[in-house]
Amino acid sequence: MTDRYLTTSDVAERCRTSESTIRYWRLRGEGPPGFKVGRRVLYREEDVAKWLEMLRAEQGPADPDGPGHKLIRPIPAAR
Prior knowledge:
The structure is a single chain. This protein is of the alpha+beta class. The chain has three helices and three strands. It has a three-stranded antiparallel sheet.
């Protein structure tokens, strides 16, 4: 099986946030694990999916009618 790698831009798109937020989370150790290849940071697609699932699980059951409902929904990978 071949690992698929995502750029900071790809991760930002999946999280529906900015690239600078992804970089900030990485610097604080709050984002998905990444590694540098030259000047570029790459993320294993599997690691990003696990990180998003961990965030979802920490939030508990979703209550779409509840106030302040926040649920990160990953964008399906492009084919």
